[in-house]
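Please, is this right?
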Amino acid sequence: MHSFPSQQAISVPRSRIRELSELAARVKDPLRLYFGESNVPTPAFIKEAAKRALDEGYTYYTHNAGYLDLRQAIAAQTRRLHGLDYEPDGEVIVTAGGVEAMFLALYATLEPGSKAVILSPCWPDVAAIVRMLGATPVEVPLVESGGRRAVDCQAVLDALDPSVRVLFVNSPLNPTGWMMTDAEEAFLAQVAERHGLCLVLDQVYERIVFDGSVAPIRHAARLRENLVLVNSVSKAYCMTGWRLGYALGPRRIIEQMTKLQEFVVSHAPAPSQRAALAAITEGEPFVREMQARYRALRDLACERLRRCPRVALVEPRGAFYAFPRIEGLADSFDFCRRLLLEKGVGLAPGCAFGAGGEGHVRLCFAVEESILVPALDRLAEFLSL
């Protein structure tokens, strides 16, 4: 007699962040800093593009890989930002959000029983997807060195064995705001090249940086035939609810991802694709405006956090999160639960982000000062108890 649900489904842990968000329903007017999104609405020029698309009849099935003009725009932007050339027809796929792009990329590169090495702490969905595919996530925590987080090169090498097929890197990194240095990127590219690994590079936060206009790709480009770039319009253009992501890579991988997409969602939503085309082709002024906004909020959040008792902070170089370590904290989920129920402040527990995350909390500072400042004040009060 079979038992249901399957053990494979049971083995995938529930999102601890979602657990807290559901708990927030018991709190009056909580200050929500646990989700990874700005509360700035999608800009009007993007919404207008979606409205026009509906009026013009963009409500039918599209190509599995997405509209060609959107893929052309994605390829052109990647060339402008990174000097990398991808063929829109065959080397670019549009997906239903960045998470689906990641799912398809890992599906196309992992085998059941294989392993993926993941730099962590990392967004929990990555390890969960690896498990869903019958593979094993191997998390290699960053180390703190000289006031910054850094790749533990020896730990990466020690994690390698013949069953490893994928090296997954998110830079800028959710939840820590770490960005690869030039030397770290060179090392990771060399590891992938020497061991024949696919380097899956999550670039979702590449435009949310505080020094420059984009997180650069230099050394990884030499891995072109074993490199998959995963991205999304969610963060840069305030479009989290539109569920529109994309990936670029070698034809032999992208064609498999396109085939697989038919059996997952068929294609990304047609109106969202038209909105994304407007975002990518017209959105550079908005991106620059948001970069300045996030930089000011980052500075405010870091200044306030450094005043808090028991807090040690490495300043983020990208993304819109602070990931402070709290002295003596052994159960970050319980800490965040009590902070939410007692002070009405919702943070994400460090334990949700895998190896190296416990003892920390994640705070999304992409909100108005009218939310951020009182949240940080209440956090300081809670830490003083």
